[in-house]
Design brief:
By secondary structure, the chain is an all-alpha fold. The protein is about 65% helix and about 0% strand. One of its GO terms (cellular component) is Cul4A-RING E3 ubiquitin ligase complex.
Length: about 775
């Protein structure tokens, strides 16, 4: 605590008393003692008052001088508190103006009071009072709480308006840990949490949660409202920091970073720390699934104090007023009795709207924390707990009444997982909900919890009718943990998905959530379940007929369509029924070709499906669809497959490979693996060589592909990489992937299956050192 209190005044020799008012005497004394001025308030009071009039300091230096003289254990802190309250009021007005201006870049001239307060050491004085209050409790508990609140308010307002203050506080680990100890006081919890959140947001090195004294006891002492607020802090401590540089997002850079940082990151360690807190996940599940009517609180108006922690911009208030207005309009249409409206003015209905938005914003933070934990290394442990505590059935019960209770316009850009978002609370809530569903379903057997018992029976019936065995995960699903009611969560999602406008960014997240249900080993029953609900026709409408121009939305729909149609002859038959004119088919091809990075997963699906169907010619239904389906006929022409292969290799290189476009490399490999199975690999490689010469850049394409495959080996043969995704999505054993890559990279120039055989000597190894360490 001594480090937080700071040093004594140089003019007092360690004692608090009034100094000589002559500034020259003070400078002389500092030379003798060897202790110079350390803050502006050490200047003579008369000088400060005189300068105050010209500089328009509004008496802040004088107030700070009096405050500092009272900042010792034996002083009357209640008297000092009166000075602090005046200062807090002055700074609060500036902070509020900053918030309403959407947090524009702070400048000294814009916020003169805050600047003056910081310039004359006000931040350090406030820190001193906080520590003194913790060490020497006042006789009056109410006064004690008010003093702490004002100290925290002053510091928070300084952080809002002056970035340098936030950074300086963040650099003091002792102070940050000290703040966590203040969270035990429920009356000052919210102010403390808000300040911690701002500080952690700029802290260079992520805080370690295990370093917080008695973290488990602290979290267990929180009520549900406090726990929801605490999730805002946790979101900063468990998320990997956004590197903010596109170059660092490349797979080449990520692989190099993983080599240098073999040990778990601080975010991963913090995730484990949270999971070890007894009852933590269970309480988050209860928070995420509780109804608005279940939110506790003796008097909701007392919770209005909480609101300033959420008011980062005016969007919250806009949403609040919009909801209240909608309620008023709904009441007016339901009843024409003007007297009833007069007795129920808008201001009386406002608290219910506030309570709804309040609850929504709590859930946004809780769902975010659960989502991050679901994507971490402890995923299976988290999955088991979320299933046990019935998170999915609880969200299903909230779907119509809270999550998607009404249409919300959303034409904003699609945000990444760690990006700051200035969306309205309802938009943020929906996106976070969809992210959670995506993470929950992706490559995990618990995905069947998104259905209800009747829907699970439907899946079983589909398998029985097709004379195929039920998926093991479906058989093992604990039916006591699935959704209740007439519809499961997946079916509800499909319903609202069809109602979204063409370019709504909700479509992106909705498609991702549904796609994650299909990802992994292809399940015919899962596909038919969705096909019977018109999903394929809906997707094709969006791609061909809706006029959708959002690349994000189109990419998500291409990926979903690929998973929905893969190896499914019924899906290709339905496709041909919808795309029933040459014009529609040409529009579909144009959308695919407009961005192959976005559509290559669909191309892969078509190629794989065609290969399987061609081996099932004894099936009359398959033969019929093969002969009639325009999409299969198009891909069956070797020149079209070669055109896709050429473009897939040409649009990527090792330096630009990312998690988003590495699928292009894998799709090109799928085309060549299938060609190798049919002994056609030399034909394809020679066609690539001829294309190079025709385009007048011999060697470039094949050298680039050679380098890409060398990177592929380093990337996918790493012991930490999970190769099952490639194997499950293609139904090609990973051993065959490895073998094909080795053959293509063979150094024997006499081998007709080695890339090197098709590059003339003068053009060999144009990028020889590209992958060298």
């Amino acid at each position: 605590m001594a480090t937080l209190l700071g040093s004594e005044s140089p003019c007092t020799g360690g004692k608090r008393r009034h100094c000589n008012g002559n500034v020259v005497t003070k400078f002389t004394a500092s030379k003798i003692t060897g202790q110079g001025f350390s803050r502006g308030t050490q200047l003579p009071g008369g000088l400060l008052q005189e300068r105050d009039k010209r500089a328009k300091w509004h008496g802040i230096p004088t107030l700070l001088q009096r405050l500092y003289e009272s900042s010792h254990p034996n002083s009357d802190l209640s008297h000092a508190h009166s000075f602090l309250k005046v200062l807090s009021s002055q700074l609060s007005m500036e902070a509020m103006s900053f918030v309403t201006e959407d947090r524009k870049t702070a400048q000294e001239s814009t916020f003169p009071n805050t600047y003056t307060f910081d310039l004359f050491g006000g931040v350090n004085v406030s820190l001193t009072f906080l520590v003194l209050d913790a060490l020497y409790l006042l006789d009056s508990e109410a006064l004690n709480d008010d003093l702490v609140k004002d100290c925290l308010s002053v510091l928070y307002n300084c952080c809002i308006c002056t970035e340098g203050v936030t950074k300086s506080l963040a650099a003091r680990d002792d102070f940050v840990l000290f703040l966590f100890t203040l969270m035990t006081n429920k009356k000052t919890f919210l102010q403390t949490a808000t300040l911690i959140e701002d500080i952690l947001g700029v802290k260079k090195e992520m805080i370690q949660l295990e370093g917080i004294p008695n973290l488990s006891g602290l979290v267990q002492s929180f009520d549900q409202q406090q726990l929801a607020n605490f999730c805002r802090i946790l979101s900063v401590t468990i998320s990997e920091p956004d590197v903010g540089n596109d170059d660092k997002h490349t797979l080449l850079a990520k692989n190099a970073q993983q080599k240098s940082n073999a040990s778990p990151s601080r975010a991963e360690v913090n995730q484990v720390t949270l999971l070890n807190i007894p009852g933590f996940i269970e309480r988050l599940c209860k928070l995420a699934t509780r109804k608005v009517s279940e939110a506790t609180g003796a008097n909701f108006l007392q919770e209005l104090e909480d609101w300033y922690t959420w008011l980062d911009n005016a969007l919250v208030l806009d949403a609040l007023m919009q909801m209240a207005t909608e309620e008023a309009e709904q009441s007016s249409t339901e009843s024409s009795d003007e007297s009833s409206l007069a007795t129920s003015p808008l201001r009386h209905r406002l608290p219910q709207s506030m309570k709804i938005v309040h609850e929504i914003m709590y859930k946004v933070e809780v769902l975010y924390v659960l989502c991050v934990l679901l994507m971490g290394r402890q995923r299976n442990q988290v999955h088991k707990m979320l299933a046990e505590f019935r998170l999915i059935p609880g969200l299903n019960n909230l779907f119509d009444k809270l999550i998607w209770r009404k249409y919300t316009a959303s034409n904003h850009v699609v945000h990444g997982q760690n990006e700051n978002c200035d969306c309205s609370p309802e938009i943020s809530f929906k996106i976070q909900f969809l992210r959670l569903l995506q993470s929950f379903s992706d490559h995990h057997e618990n995905k069947y919890l998104l259905l209800n018992s009747q829907e699970l029976n439907e899946l079983s019936a589909i398998s029985m009718k097709a004379n195929i065995p039920e998926v093991e995960a479906l058989v093992n699903t604990d039916r006591s943990l699935v959704c209740d009611g007439k519809k499961g969560l997946l079916t509800r999602l499909l319903t609202v998905m069809k109602r979204e406008p063409p370019d709504s960014s909700f479509r992106f997240w909705q498609a991702r959530a549904v796609e994650s249900f299909l990802r992994g080993a292809t399940s015919y029953a899962d596909q038919m379940f969705l096909l019977k609900r018109g999903l394929l026709e809906h997707i094709l409408f969006c791609i061909i007929d809706s006029g959708c121009t959002s690349r994000d939305v189109l990419q998500s729909y291409f990926d979903l369509l690929g998973e929905l149609m893969k190896f499914n002859i019924d899906a290709f038959k339905r496709f041909n029924k919808y795309v029933n004119t040459p014009e529609k088919f040409q529009t579909f091809l144009t959308q695919i070709n407009s961005s192959l990075v976005d559509s290559n997963m669909l191309v892969r699906c078509i190629v794989l499906s065609l290969d399987r169907f061609e081996s099932q010619t004894e099936d009359v239904k398959v033969v019929e669809v093969l002969s009639e389906c325009c999409l299969l006929s198009y891909m069956a022409r070797v020149e079209n497959r070669l055109a896709f292969l050429f473009r897939l290799i040409n649009i990527i290189n090792v330096q630009t490979l990312t998690q988003e476009n590495v699928s292009c490399l894998n799709t090109s490999l799928v085309i060549l693996m299938l060609a190798r199975r049919k002994a056609k690999l030399p034909f394809y490689l020679n066609a690539l060589r001829e294309k190079e010469y025709a385009e007048k850049y011999p060697g470039c394409l094949l050298n680039n592909f050679h380098n890409l495959l060398r990177f592929w080996q380093r990337h996918y043969l790493n012991k930490d990489k999970d190769s099952t995704c490639l194997e499950n999505s293609s139904c090609i054993p990973f051993s065959y992937w490895k073998e094909t890559v080795s053959v293509l990279l063979g150094s024997d120039r006499t081998s007709l299956c080695a890339i090197a055989s098709y590059i003339d000597e003068p053009y060999m190894d144009l990028d020889r050192d590209l992958l060298e360490d």
